[in-house]
Design brief:
ATP binding, binds adenosine-5'-triphosphate, transmembrane transporter activity, binds magnesium ion, ABC_transpr_LolD-like, alpha/beta, globular, 7 helices
Amino acid sequence: MAVSPRIVLSGQNIEKTYLEGKTPLTIFSNLQFELFSSEFVAIVGSSGAGKTTLLNILGGLDKPTSGDVLIGGQNVHRLAERKRCQLRNREIGFVYQFHHLLPEFSALENVVMPVLVGKSMNLKTGRAKAQELLERVGLSERLHHKPAQLSGGERQRVAIARALVNDPSCVLMDEPTGNLDEHTALEVQALMQELIGQFTTSFVVVTHDLHLAKTADRIFRLETGVLKATDKSSF
Ligand SMILES: Nc1ncnc2c1ncn2[C@@H]1O[C@H](COP(=O)(O)OP(=O)(O)OP(=O)(O)O)[C@@H](O)[C@H]1O
Ligand SMILES: [Mg+2]
């Protein structure tokens, strides 16, 4: 009997409405999303469509106006702050357009940080894991460099290693190559494709890059408040 794939993350009836002044601005409503184990989903859509808003809600960083987000079966926005942070720390890795590395810490220390915060393993194991990940993203010679001593592409590589250090069930990436020049963006994309193929982690990547999107298992387009599965051949 075939085993049905496990859902690692789901959004159910998600609505986000901003109340700026007197006019409410609904970005999306009644939005559904399911992410299965080991899959790679790309989300595309024009600027302002709500991709970052959606990713932040799915990752438990931003609260939906209504609806539920389940991470590993737990209703993330109904958890108390501390439990929500713990769940996020263990189950979700984030990579943003801007690296968000801590400037006063080295590459290695930045990658170890989620281990320290979540106490997911002892520090020695965490450091070994962080070093191994930095080697895998091609930075074995840059372990002790601070973010200011790294190039833009190298900083994103560190951010990717950091997102993976706690073996999360999914990694959410918001235009991870959007702030890089074309050549560096292609290099980081190639690295992402390689890692996506190697890890059992699921990946959701918001991207404007159609070549990268095309390599996903499923592509969604977010437009005028609707998240629609998109046929790859239409790219
Ligand atoms: N804190 C906020 N208050 C009010 N409106 C907001 C807030 N944050 C985002 N918005 C609005 O929500 C909409 C979606 O923003 P979002 O950043 O999610 O878009 P996006 O699809 O990620 O765009 P981009 O491709 O440019 O990153 C935009 O119209 C934006 O102005
Ligand atoms: Mg965005």
